[in-house]
Amino acid sequence: MVAVESDNKRAVSRADATLTKRARVDETVVTSAIDARACFHAGLLDEADSLAPVFASAMPFSHCCITPFCNETLLQGVRQEMLERLHFTQKETDIFKYHQSGDLANLDGLPEDEKRQLPSLQKLRDAIYSQEFRDF
After folding, report:
1. CA atoms within 13 A on the CB side of 21
2. N or C: which end of the chain has fewer CB within 10 A?
3. Whole-angstrom distance, CA of residue 52 vs CA of residue 95
4. Helix/strand/coil for 132
5. What is the spatial distance between Cα 74 and Cα 54, in angstroms, rounded to a whole number?
6. What element of type H or E holds 13?
7. What angle do CA 48, 38, 64 make, to 5 degrees?
């Protein structure tokens, strides 16, 4: 009986953590005060109608290549921040090795002094999570 109760408590705890993380991501989308359009290539978000048939007719699966995609200056800032300020952990599977950083959704959980060191990354994350981009 005790084992069942502790398993249930763990399950509830994991569910609460998942809901909290989702709420944090949703809150970021709602409260973000950035101009999403400024983060992407000029006019990109207005091209959805012309890209839809390209996406639908692509083979062997539905896809679409968008170049250029983002504001180049913003991407250069993101690259610099990633190389200079983020920690990556080396991971390895049976078929490849890679370096993994933290999840973009967790940027809001960083201390304020660390958040201030990643302005370009936060701006790009907020633009990608914005309702305007999701509707695109």
Report:
1. 11
2. N
3. 35
4. helix
5. 27
6. helix 2-31
7. 30
Cα Rg, the chain, nearest whole Å: 19
Residue for token pair 């950035």: 34
Residue recorded with tokens 């009986």 = 1
Structure tokens at 63: 């896809």
68-121 pLDDT, tens digit each:
889 999 999 999 998 888 888 899 999 999 888 877 777 877 888 888 888 999
d(CA 102, CA 115): 13
The pTM score is 0.63
CA distance 73 to 115: 19
Among 113, 41, 114, CA closest to 71: 41
- Give the single-character DSSP code of 91: E
